Amino acid sequence: MPIRVLIADDALFMRNMIKEVFASQEFHVIGEAANGVEAIEKYKQLKPDITTMDIVMPLKSGIEAVREIVKIDPNARIVMCSALGQESLVMEAIEAGAKDYIVKPFKPEKVLEVVKKVIAAK
Amino acid sequence: MIDLSKYKALFLSETQEHLQSMNDCLLKMEKGEQDDETISAIFRNAHSIKGMAASMGYEPIRDLAHSMEDLLDQVRQKQRTLDKETTDILFQAADRIEEMLKQIEKDRDIESGWQEIQKKILELIKKKPIEKSPEPAEPKAPLPISAHPKGIEIQVLISPEADSPSVRALILFKRIQELGKIFSASPSLEEIKSGKIQATSQGYPLSILIQTERSEDEIREVLKGVSELTKFEVKETSESAAVASVIKAPETKQEPRESEPASMGSPVGQTVRIRTQILDDLINTLGELILIKGELDELSRRSPVPGLRQSLDKIERLSREFHDQVMSARLVPIEIAVQRLPRLVRDLAKEYGKEIELEIKGKEIELDRTLIEKLMDPLVHIIRNAVYHGIESPEERKARGKNVAGKIRIIASRERDIVDLTISDDGRGIDPQKVKKKALEMGLISPAQAEEMTMEQCLNLVFISGLSTADKVGMVSGRGVGMEVVKNMVEGVGGTVILNSEPGRGTTISLQLPRTVAITKVLLIKLAEEIFAFPLSRILRTIEILPYQLRKSQNQEYYLEKQELIPLVYFHKLLDLKVPEEHIFPLNALVVEGRKKKMALVVDALVGQEDAFIRPLGKPLERIPGLSGVTMLGDGRIVFVLELVGLF
To answer: Cα separation of B139 and B214, whole Å?
Structure first.
């Protein structure tokens, strides 16, 4: 069974880039969200295996979205998508329950390594 | 034989630091923040004190710290909760060690009495409450309590290519936390969170010691699932070895790994401890240098030499920089003065059956270290007053519709060269009428004076020695000497104290302090043919007043400025000098602010500015109101430095 992915990012460009990274037999992008509120809604609805979450998004930030999703599903696997210089925000997200992080600009192999390891962790 | 005496100062200061940290942690834990990291921290403090005292041969400290360590070990092993009894005895022991340090500092024999505390601790250890501490429910299956968890040391190297090494370290930390209890970590969680993670050429080393039920293989499996790690090592350590490495852990990060050369940016060597006397000497030497520069200025004015002016200007600029640098080395955060207050408030609140929250803001604001030292006692006094007189009992507060817990706030802020330290409480406030009545009764003021006093003046009577509104004389305050001491200290360094109080609402005391002392910019003024110096920082601006700007009302003249009426006062009058018979326009005046009121002080002439190295006045001159010191001008003339304090 392919790994089901939810992508949350307010930029269509970024969503498409990430989608391309996941374009293989192993993964299946099952949903996209353009803001934090939508990310929470889609998560509830789709129960993805993994979620990539941008930090700065309209309506609700990625960090807030992580907090709420973890409340609903303590085992949620969320990987933060950050830019360099956002260390403290990423740390906040990790404290909130995000499992890992990737840094823009994405290197596909690195994104896949991180995501696979997060999936493999019990 | 090693000469231990030269290590004494270091021993004293380091032990003091450990005691402070211990106090802070105990307070934190008393508030319910009983996390493992804090317990380990206190344990390490006790352990370090024990070790240092042993090497210095101070056996009483060693033994007392040892018993504390044993007690804390039970807490750490979850064989004991940190209940009131335990906390109290630990506080007592810490206080006793502090007293012993004072005795050592004064080269006195260590007084006995500590043995009783040690005995109490040992008895407590023997009692060993078996009840398990109410731990938060663990998500894992319950483990047999009899099982002895192992100590496992995890050494990890985060890849030098990691995008955000500190985030990676945090993720790792959290993963490991899920496996067991973290004893110690280097770098610590705080260091990781603040991004302080040191790189070596091979990456970012991280070592964590945990107590866990998991096997080494299980842990390796988990580590394999973490990205961006170049290597990791997992090995079991015996229980005692685990403890030993807890102690050693902080050092490991400073040791270069394997054969690698020590990196240039190593944290070691970025700071040194120096005797504060050296800083004082530097300032004094610089002060002399500035005086000589002033002499040169004067000489060059009399017989100009080409190029000399430029060189003097250079010296001027450099000495100013030098001064600023030395001054900033003397600055220490206010934290040093306030760090003991949480403990003080706790103890006092307990003693008087009050509930009090203490809020401290602006700890990082810096002040000259001599000021910090001088500030300690006044601060303690103000806080004691707030707890004893200010904050009402929980019942009384409830009846008045206030929060049961009273609040004391200490807020430091800085504006240019003035640091404001405001201490406020939301207690019952000071009733000016009551103060006035008391002052009358005690004969401190006459009935006629009382009649004429404003509310504000009544309030300020509390600064007079001997006045206390406490109904009974308490142990900690109400002896009526305190506020005078506060005022004298603050004003002695050129600051001001502003007292505000609203009956039923609380009291606010603002201490406005100069940030640095020693070299002060002064304005030279002429009064009755004499030259005086007046600190520039006290002057809002200088003005020239023309007749049309004057207004008169009830015998008082005012200077009118943008619809504001500023009382006009001849400076001469304040100093008992001969006041000119009539105004000679334009009038030169300094606009100053004292006690929140502005005033235009008329002077005969403004002479110039000067960097003054102010020397204190000796006895008996120091008692003359209005004089704060003397300074030597470039031409060798000695002038008095004026201070508004005590003049009105």
So the answer is: 14
Contacts of residue B86, defined as CB under 8 A and 6 or more positions apart, other chains included, come to B71, B75, B80, B124
Q: From CA B432, how far away is CA B507, in angstroms rounded? A: 12
| CA angle (B220, B225, B226) in 5-degree steps | 100
List, for residues B133-155, the tens digit of each pLDDT value: 444 443 433 333 334 456 788 88
Rounded Cα gap, residues B632 and B294, in angstroms: 9
The shortest C-alpha distance from B510 to chain A (Å) reads 36
Angstrom distance (rounded) from CA B582 to CA B149: 92
- Under DSSP, is residue B441 helix (H, G, I), strand (E, B) or coil? helix
- Whether chain A has a CB inside 8 Å of the CB on B138: the answer is no
User: Considering only alpha carbons, which residue of chain B is nearest residue A91?
Assistant: B167
CA distance B612 to B529: 20
Which two structure tokens, joined as six digits, stand for B487? 């005022």
User: Which residue has 């609903």 as its token pair?
Assistant: A72
B222 contacts A87? CB cut-off 8 A = no
Cβ of A91 and B170 within 8 Å?
yes
Which residues touch B150 (CB under 8 Å, ≥6 apart)?
A: B211, B212, B213, B236, B237, B239
Is the CB of A109 inside 8 Å of chain B's CB atoms?
A: no
Q: Which residues of B touch A87 (CB under 8 A)?
A: 164, 166-167, 195
Q: Edge-to-edge, what's the strand order for the sheet holding B418-425?
A: B356-361, B406-415, B418-425, B506-514, B496-502
Q: What is the pLDDT of residue B251?
A: 35
**A52 part of contact set with chain B, CB < 8 Å:** no
- Amino acid identity of residue B275, one-letter, is R
Confirm whether pTM is higher than 0.80: no
* pLDDT tens digits, A4-34: 999 999 888 888 888 888 888 788 999 999 8
Distance, in angstroms, between A21 CA and closest chain B CA? 18
Cβ(B449)–Cβ(B410) under 8 Å? Answer: no
Q: What is the pLDDT of residues A83-92, one digit of tens each?
A: 777 788 899 9
Adjacent-strand bridge partners of B561? B564
Name the pairing type of β-strands B530-535 and B627-632: unpaired
Percent of chain B residues topping a pLDDT of 90:
12
ipTM of the prediction: 0.88
At residue B177, φ and ψ (nearest 5 deg) are: -60, -30
Name the band, by pLDDT with cuts 50, 70 and 90, for residue B246.
Answer: very low
CA–CA separation, B34 and B136 (whole Å): 11
Q: Which range among A60-64, B470-474, B642-646 has the greatest average pLDDT?
A: A60-64
pLDDT value, residue B471? 42
Closest partner CB to B227 (pick from A82, A94, A113): A113
Chains A and B: how many Cβ contacts under 8 Å? 40
**Nearest residue of chain B to residue A88 (CA atoms):** B193
Contact B28, B35 (CB under 8 A): no
The single-letter DSSP state of residue B548 is: G
Element (H, E) at B608: strand B605-613
Q: Which residues of B395-409 are buried (b: 16+ CB within 10 A; e: fewer)?
A: eebeeeebeeebbbb
Cβ contacts (< 8 Å) between A91 and chain B: which residues? 166-167, 170, 193
Measured between CB atoms, does B193 come within 8 Å of chain A?
yes
Decide if B163 and A113 are in contact by the 8 Å CB cutoff: no
A84 CB neighbours in chain B (<8 A) are: 163-164
Return the structure tokens found at A53: 């979450």
Residue B256 has pLDDT above 60, yes or no: no
Contacts of A99 in chain B (CB under 8 A): 171
For residue B439, what pLDDT is reported? 83
* Pick from A13, A25, A32, A87: nearest CA to A55: A87
CB contact under 8 A, B225 and A121: yes
Cα of A30 vs its chain's centroid, Å: 13
The model's pLDDT over B230-240, given as tens digits with 9 standing for 90+, comes to 888 888 765 43
